[in-house]
Amino acid sequence: MNKYRSNTCGELTKKNKGSEVVLSGWINKKRDHGNLLFLDLRDNYGITQCIIDKENKFFKNLEKIQLETVIKIVGEVVERSPDTINKDIKTGEIEVKIKSYEVLGACEELPMPVFSDQEYAEDIRLKYRFLDLRRKKVHENISLRSKIISFIRDEMIKLGFLEFQTPILTSSSPEGARDFLVPSRLNPGKFYALPQAPQQFKQLIMISGFDKYFQIAPCFRDEDARADRSPGEFYQLDIEMSFVEQEDVFIVVEKLMLLLFKKFSSKKILFEKFPRITFKEALLKYGTDKPDLRNPLEICDLTSIFTREDVKFEIFKKLVKSGSIVRAIKTTNTKDKPRSFFDGIDKWAKDQGASGMAYFTIENDKEITAKGPVGKFFSEDAIKEIMKIMEAKIGDSIFFSCNKEKEVLKLISSARDKIAQELNLINEDSFAFCWIVDYPMFEIDENTKKIQFSHNPFSMPQGDLSKINFSNPLEIKAYQYDIVCNGIELSSGAIRNHKPDLMYKLFSVVGYSKLEVQKKFKGMINALSYGAPPHGGIAPGLDRIVMLLANEKNIREVTLFPMNQNAQDLMMDAPSEVNESQLKELGLQIKKK
């Protein structure tokens, strides 16, 4: 028998009554009743209540022992009385009467509580992450993460995919974020880059003749942190397939997601067949390409209304004349909502940096009118036209926003979520997946005003390739797609461009010469020249999937050893300075500011 335990702390039941057992674990909690001391002993598998009375020679020592000390106990399993049964734990029908104990690992005074999941300062939680990971909720989240990855791996293999590992030290490439660079000792003055994604390698795997590849891939991007994004590294389910079209990728991913989310959650999946929404439609109806489809509210374009003579809302009319647009949200049957509800949305918009949100409620008092601060500026005919465009009825309310397109979309998409929350329209006990498709191949960079790739530069453009109008690149659509769930982007993907000549043309649009493409993507271009199959793929983010299934809002709650917002590992003190000899060996010198 193992000398540390005959059983775990999560498996003893009434069947073990009268047995002598050996348990080891952490002291989770103590309750001193004077003549009787209760200890909750915890390990990875659960909690067992242990008791010791005052007559036992070890009583006083255990009475003083620090929580989170690791101990081994020897004792007898006894049945609890009916009124003391704890139905919340698997071992709740028994307890262990302690005969002897041994300290296996002493514990200093704790910097944070472990036995509860109460909120605690993030810097303390990250510095003492090994303690934080002992806490029930985060411990279960990390265990869930492991189970999810194991399930995904099994399902991908069942679907005929082979698992490969791609290089970590590679060359820098324009994936859309900053690279982490690694100096080369053997090649002074040159640097490796940690992969932002295994993009080129997974395409090379397809060119190598393998048909279906997957990998639980580590990715590295020097990006700022967000609630749903780690600042340095993350993991994704990297997938690539040969001889496929867009729909083939969708079929595989939908099947996997349905199996995964049904396995690990009891929440309802609203659409078994994920809706396909074009990028253009998404921006119009939801104000974003990451729509939360649990929210029934939709956005309409009302710009044309403010060109009418019978609309006297001059502020909006002047803005529209100067190139602004108007987007609006309809709320159904909100005529009885108090004024504070509407003013609250207006104030919220101002808090977001906007000038506010105009609104009115449609009424019918002999004639159709608009009740609200701006209602007097609209004629009956104008209101009827708004009702027609928005499919609105008497008693509905309309919220307006007017500005340049970028600012309007930012505000109206957030307002859609805010209003839905205020009206309790979102079913929190559900998942709503969708595909966003038909992304533009190119876009205008806001800072440089130059044309750049909008998504993945290795994507295949849509349509007849012999008739693509490269003189109007902003009109070119690509076989690029995103999968979104509950307003969270899980992944981007694409059907790849496997034609070298076409790749040269597409890169020339953003200013790359043929020579530059050959130099920057030497391995890829060379490989494509030797018989490349049509192929495509996607890479759903594992961290965000686990966030959804664990019902967490912050990615750090489902990451084993996360960094803080400043990309610092407080526990391991990284990043850290290195000594002069290391720098000299690499041919590097730090310039002091």
Structure description:
The protein is α+β, with helices and mostly antiparallel strands. 28% of the residues lie in helices and 24% in strands. The protein is built from 16 helices and 24 strands. A hairpin with a 3-residue loop joins strand 1 and strand 2 (36-43). Helix 5 packs parallel to helix 14 (522-528).
Task: Produce a short descriptive summary.
This protein is α+β, with helices and mostly antiparallel strands. Helices cover 28% and strands 24% of the residues. The protein has 16 helices and 24 strands.
Strand residues, percent: 15-25%
Number of helices in the DSSP assignment: 16
Number of strands: 24
| Quaternary structure type | single chain
Tags for this model:
alpha+beta, 8-stranded mixed sheet, 593 residues, 28% helix, 24% strand, 5-stranded mixed barrel
Which secondary structure elements does this structure contain, and how are they paired or packed?
Blueprint (H helix, E strand, L loop, with lengths): L19 E13 L3 E8 L2 E8 L5 H6 L5 E10 L14 E12 L16 H6 L1 H4 L3 H23 L3 E2 L17 E3 L7 E3 L5 H9 L4 E9 L12 E10 L3 H19 L3 E2 L6 E3 H8 L12 E3 L12 H8 L3 E7 L7 H13 L6 E8 L1 E5 L8 H11 L6 E7 L1 H18 L7 E2 L1 E5 L4 E3 L6 E3 L26 E6 L2 E8 L4 H10 L4 H7 L1 H7 L6 E4 L3 H9 L29 H7 L7
Parallel strand pairs: 3-5, 6-9, 11-18, 12-19
Antiparallel strand pairs: 1-2, 1-4, 2-3, 4-5, 7-8, 9-10, 10-24, 13-14, 14-17, 15-16, 15-17, 19-22, 20-21, 22-23, 23-24
